[in-house]
Structures are given as structure tokens and as C-alpha cells.
Amino acid sequence: MAIKFADRMDNLKASEIRELLKFAADPSIISFGGGMPAPELFPVEEMKKVAVAVLEESGQSALQYATTEGNVKLREQIADRMNRKYQSKVALDDVLITSGSQQGLDFAGKIFINEGDVVLCESPSYLGAINAFKAYGPKFIEVPTDDHGMVIEELEKILDSTENVKMVYVIPDFQNPSGKTWTMERRERFMEVINKHEIPVIEDNPYGELRFEGEILPSLKSMDTKDLVVFLGTYSKIFAPGLRIGWVCAAPEILQKFNFVKQSADLQSSTISQMEAAKFGEMYDLDAHVEKIKAVYKVRRDLMMKIMKEEFPEGVKWTYPEGGLFTWVVLPEHINARDLLKKCLEEKVAFVPGGAFFPNGGNENTFRLNYSNAPEEKLEEGMKRLAKAIKSMM
Amino acid sequence: MAIKFADRMDNLKASEIRELLKFAADPSIISFGGGMPAPELFPVEEMKKVAVAVLEESGQSALQYATTEGNVKLREQIADRMNRKYQSKVALDDVLITSGSQQGLDFAGKIFINEGDVVLCESPSYLGAINAFKAYGPKFIEVPTDDHGMVIEELEKILDSTENVKMVYVIPDFQNPSGKTWTMERRERFMEVINKHEIPVIEDNPYGELRFEGEILPSLKSMDTKDLVVFLGTYSKIFAPGLRIGWVCAAPEILQKFNFVKQSADLQSSTISQMEAAKFGEMYDLDAHVEKIKAVYKVRRDLMMKIMKEEFPEGVKWTYPEGGLFTWVVLPEHINARDLLKKCLEEKVAFVPGGAFFPNGGNENTFRLNYSNAPEEKLEEGMKRLAKAIKSMM
User: Fold this and answer.
1) Interface test with B, best of A64, A119, A247, A279 (most B CBs within 10 A)
2) B50-77, pLDDT tens digit by residue?
3) What is the pLDDT of residues B253-309, one digit of tens each?
């Protein structure tokens, strides 16, 4: 075939996480791979009542086209949520609904990145964001992180010595993939540096509410005095990913660009999904639902940590996440996590090798584990198989 | 603010159609502007049963992440539909679900267009497609059309004399905005030329099933022997746009690119919306539903045609659509449709000025009328107001 694709298509390939979802469909495999919520916690019975209520009260509007920015009630609830949970001071007009926060990532790339521009991100960073940005042809510079978050001295060095830095992408709360959370002090210093350099920040926060211990820290957005921070949120982890409801919260000049881009990308997100999410917020207590999720995930995190401590051989390190969905494992340098995965798939257990989370490659001795999706018994069995496979490669 | 947006943002502005949706929200305005289906025909009662059935039978899966390519049952129904309606021979693996066909348009731009590449389209063409493609920086060449479709001699001349033509975008059935349909002979000659030049074709077909008279003609996709045609379909006009269900049907090499792009753009379309659309197809008769829609729209088309004939002054011309949602009006050259719109908004009636449908500008004496969204009484009143406004400008 003589068809010529655009050059950008050379940068895109199938996501390993999505490919892994195919394994996960095999019920005999215990998967720590995806970032899937526990389906047994979805409010299925409540959603039946919600769906009927939406169609009874406003069936015709629910099935019709609606505005690009999204459902007013839902945006109101989201603004309120951000103010209550993350100390923001935003209103519904600061919020635009997206189809999951993944769409917010794609749009951020489209809005900010010219080919060859520099994007800064944590090292490692979220694979899905890296792939979304790659379509727009940036160079990535990975900023080193430690247990307290991004290393600000390194960020400053890079900003002082680099042209064309167009945006900084960060996940300060229970980072994907590392599970780490930035301290308050790190957030403050980060915003000082950002304000000095006036670089847009994409603050991706899918997991912030899922904190098992301690207090939720203020979002970068709440500390933003120069309209530089674009906050991406989602209902996927606190409610249900199948509805594809996420949001962008940004200053008017930036949010208008998101609106234009969304118009040409898909006009609007599902009217009925938005109305259902808003109606759930009216009829039920989403905060109480999040508490239920946290209680279950905390038990799974604790169990995963316990088994790692008991079963993983010396020389293997991992992070202790105070919330969210993931922990991050660093193997001795001579072990390649892709080889480990091959062995593990034979043993019917899966995870995501860490190399893909580094946009500039390397770090093949790392991998990400998800603990939200497997019930305790399965989690225990899967972790034992994984430990055995690691031991066999030491 | 010092923030620098990507260069492509200079090409994007708010769609006039979307801005008009804001007028349409004012209930005192009779709008022929949008492309909205008649909401009174939405199967609201059926959807209540469908929603409950989906949540009862597979509530956890309906609220969970799912695969990028989309729900298997829905893709099966769509492939079957394409084969029955448009003489295609496709299977579920040839179909990928998108969030409306607008998303298919954006993805087509992303997949095929490098900055400066040439995109051919009918003159006029769909505003939303033009805007979606513009984000990727192409040059547009408009191919002249007559009452039988694209003028093939002109297409050949352009292809013979132009470098870097990366795709041809067409709407052969009840075109948006013109309401015109390509004849069989024109389809055959088009495919001959395309096969010779081996250029990808984006065949956008949102309205094809809404034919009020005569037989549905074969899709270009069904006549495609070289895997060059990408077919975009949607449930928005035959079912409900609020679910945001569209699809792409293409050869494996091309469809795989759509899959990669969708992964990074939004992972997948709404799981629950897809399951509901598929369940509706199982529980009810979508073909029968389409017949109901056609019967209502035919009456409205007839009424609009009748009033135009009776009330529009000499020197105004319009198309006779055999189906779909739109007719296209050409005013005498000295009348600017944007000025007419201003006058009409004072009289509480709205439409979309035609200039925006020509990517290279001009043709300001044209506009598009939609007849699907207004009940007869309103349609009659609105058309009379419109006729009066036109007369006052002659």
C-alpha cells in the first residue's frame, strides 16, 4: 500500500499497559499490571437508580448533544470537591469536562507542544502521559526525584540551562508509577521556581483522595498565584472509569484553549455519563463512597507490603505508598524486568516493567505493581508467585 | 502571562456551530443552526430498560475500564449494519469505536497530516472536519461539486498537478452542509481516480441511512479494492448523540494507527455507553427506530421545501436533499449571510452562515439550514421569519 502516514505516527506504539489488559482478560492470570479499580466496589445498585432517575427527569436532554465545557451541575460538584479536598478556590467556570484525565493529557500536549519543545517530567513518570505527549514530538528531560518528590535543585539547574521548556508534567500525589508523594516543603519550593520561570505546569491528580494515612496536602493549583497550573482530575479512581469522566481546571485563557481543542476532538463528553455522575452526587454521598474504597485499598496495600517484606529477596527495594494504587520495585541492576515478566506470565502473574515509564529509556531493572484490583486471597497468591520468580533470577 | 501555546493553536477557534448551540439554549429562538436530531424521537423509555438490563447483567464490567477497540457485541452489530445498509463486507475486527465520528475526524488528521500536506475536500465541506484537520496544519484544496457530487475532472486535474496530497475527505451521502448525494456513476469514477493515485479517502457518513426516497447507494468503502477508504460512522443521527458512539472502519494497517492514537487520546470510549448501545440493538429494533426518524424528518424537509418555494424571493437558490438533515441556501452575491444572521437573531431565528464551510474562505452569500430539530409549527414560523428577513435585504 502506498499510503503515507504522518511523521508523528513513528512515535506512537501500543501501550504496554493496554496490551497487558489483554492478559488480564485471561481469568487464570493474577494481574498487578493495570491501574484498574476494584470492580466489586462499584456502586452498581445505586447506578441503576441513578440511570432511571436521569432518564425520567431529563431523558431527552440526556440523549442529546450538549455544550463542550460540560454539564453545569457536575462542574459545580467538581469545583466544590477541589475546594474541599485540595484547598483550591475555583468555580464551575474554571472546570471543563474531559473523557477521563487521559484526554486532558492529550489536549495539554496539543495546546503547548511544538515539535522539538522540551517537556520536563519526574523520573519515572506516567507512561500514558509520555505517550500522549509523544504524538506532538517533544524532547523529554527527566527531573530526578527522591522520597520527598521532585528534586528542586535539579529542576532549577535544568530550567537555567535549557531553552524551549514548554511545560512541566507532574503527579505530586501517590505518583504513577512510583507511589511517592511530594512533601509540603517540596510543593512550596517547586511553585517558587515555577513562578520565577513562568512555565505552565500540568498537575495530574487521579489518586489524591485515596490517602490511607495523614492529611491530603494542598494541590499545586491551590498554591498557584500566576495562573500557571493546569489541574487534571478524574472520576475513574474515586467512582468508575467506565463512564470516562475527567476534568481540567485552569485559568480562563488556558481553559479556552482546552475548549477549542475539545470541540474539534470530540465536541463533548457523553451527556448521559455526565448527568449520571452529577445525579449520583445528588442522590448519594461520594465522599462516603471514597471512604469505602480507601478502607479496602489500605488492606491490600498493607498485605502487599507485608508479603514483599517477608518474601522478596535482599537487594530488592520498593516504595511505601501512603495512598493511591501503586508501589514501585527496583531490582538489582542485572535483572531485567521484561525477562522477569516473561517468567511470571508462565506462572500466571503479571505487572508492568518499569522501563516504559522513563521517556529516555534505561532503568530496565524496575517495575510497577498495582494493589487495588486483586482481592486479598489472589493478591497473596500472586505476590508469592512473583517473589518466587524474582528469587529464581537473583 | 508569559505562557506560550503551540503554534497550531493559532489555527483553532471556537466553532460557529458550537457557539450557536448557546443561542439555541434560549427557548425563544427557533434555531435551524445545529445538526441536532429531534429529541422527541429519542427512545427514552426503552433506554431506561436498557440501562437497568446492562447494570443487572454486567454492572461491574459496565463501570470498569475496557479495551481500546471497543465492545465486541457493538462492533459486531455495526459491522452487520454496514454490510446490510451500505453493501460492505466487513467484520467486527475492521471496526473501532470512537467518541462520535468527530473523534474519527480528529484521529484521521493526526494519523495522516504533516504540516503543509494537502487535504482535498468538497467545496463546501463540513466545518467540524475542517476545524479538526486544521489543528495539524494542512493546506486545503477545495474540489468543485455539482448536483451529482464531486466533479471528477476537477479532482483529476488537482491530483495530477499537486504534490503531497495526503488524503481526500468526502461526505457522499446527504452532504453536510449542502444536502447533496453523489450518484453511483460519480462514486465509481471517484474510486477509479483514487485507485490510480492511491490516496487515502476519509468517507464520512453520518446521515446515509436517513434516506427519504430512493435506495441507499453503496458506500465508497464497499467499492474499495485497495484498502484506501476509511469509513466513519456514528449512532448520533440514527440513535442518540448524547452517548457519543461513533466508529471507524478501515483496513488493519490503518485501523491499528487509529487504535494507537485512541490509546493516547482517551484510552477508550465510555464502557457503559457502548454496552447500552449494544443492548438496545439486542432488545429493540434499531432499523424500525430509524424508520420512525425518517418519517418525521421527511415531513419536515417537505415543509421546509414548500415554504422556501412559497416565501423565498427570486434570486435565492437552495438544494433538494433526498435525506439527511440539511439544505443549503445560496443568496444573491451582494447579501452577506452573516449580516442576515444578525438581522435574524433580532427576529429570534438562527442558522449557520456558509462561509465557514469553505476552508479557503469566500462564499459569504450562503448558509445552511437544518430541518430535523424543529417541530412543524416552529419550523413554519421560523422559516417565515427567515423569509421576511431575506426579503428585507434584497
Assistant:
1) A64
2) 999 999 999 999 999 999 999 999 999 9
3) 999 999 999 999 999 999 999 999 999 999 999 999 999 999 999 999 999 999 999
Distances (CA, A) of A165 to A151, A258, B256: 17, 20, 32
CATH number, span B46-283: 3.40.640.10
The yes-or-no verdict on residue A159 having pLDDT over 90 is yes
| Per-domain boundaries in chain B | 7-43+288-393, 46-283
Do A111 and B37 count as a contact with CB atoms less than 8 A apart? no
CA gap A190, A184 in Å, rounded: 10
- Cβ contacts of residue B300 below 8 Å, gap of 6+? B371, B372, B374, B376, B379
Residue A88's CB: how many other CB atoms inside 10 A? 22
Query: In this structure, what C-alpha cell is assigned to residue B202?
Result: 476519509
B37 with B326: CB under 8 angstroms?
no
ipTM score: 0.96
Spatial distance between the Cα atoms of B184 and B182, rounded to a whole number of angstroms: 7
Q: Rg of the Cα trace of chain B?
A: 21
pLDDT at A300: 98
pLDDT-based confidence at residue A17 (cuts at 50, 70, 90): low
Q: CB B99 to CB A100 under 8 A?
A: no
pLDDT in tens, A264-273: 999 999 999 9
- Least Cα distance to B65 among B258, B276, B269, B260 occurs for B269
User: Do residues B32 and B350 touch, judged by C-beta distance below 8 A?
Assistant: yes
Res B1 pLDDT > 60: no
The label of the residue with cell 501501550 reads A15
Residue A297 C-alpha cell reads as 485499598
- Nearest CA of chain B to the CA of A152: how many Å? 21
H-helix or E-strand spanning residue B389: helix B376-393
Q: How many helices (H) and strands (E) does chain A have?
A: 12, 14
| CB-CB neighbours of B290 under 10 Å | 18
What tens digit of pLDDT does each residue of B125-158 get? 999 999 999 999 999 999 999 999 999 999 999 9
* B202–A contact, CB cutoff 8 A: no
Cis peptide before A138 (omega within 30 of 0): no
Show the cell assigned to A198. Answer: 513562568
Average pLDDT, chain B: 95
Instruction: Spell out the residues 6+ positions from residue B374 whose beta carbon is closer than 8 angstroms to its own.
Output: B30, B31, B32, B300, B382
Integer Cα distance of A174 and A380 in angstroms: 22
Q: Among B10, B15, B49, B64, which would you mutate to test the A interface (most chain A Cβ atoms within 10 Å of its Cβ)?
A: B64
**pLDDT at residue A228 tops 60:** yes
B44 and A60 in contact by Cβ < 8 A?
Answer: yes
Class of domain B7-43+288-393: alpha beta
Q: Which residues contact A221 (CB under 8 A, 6 or more apart)?
A: A82, A86, A88, A90, A203, A229, A230, A231, A249
**Are A335 and A223 a contacting pair, CB within 8 Å?**
no
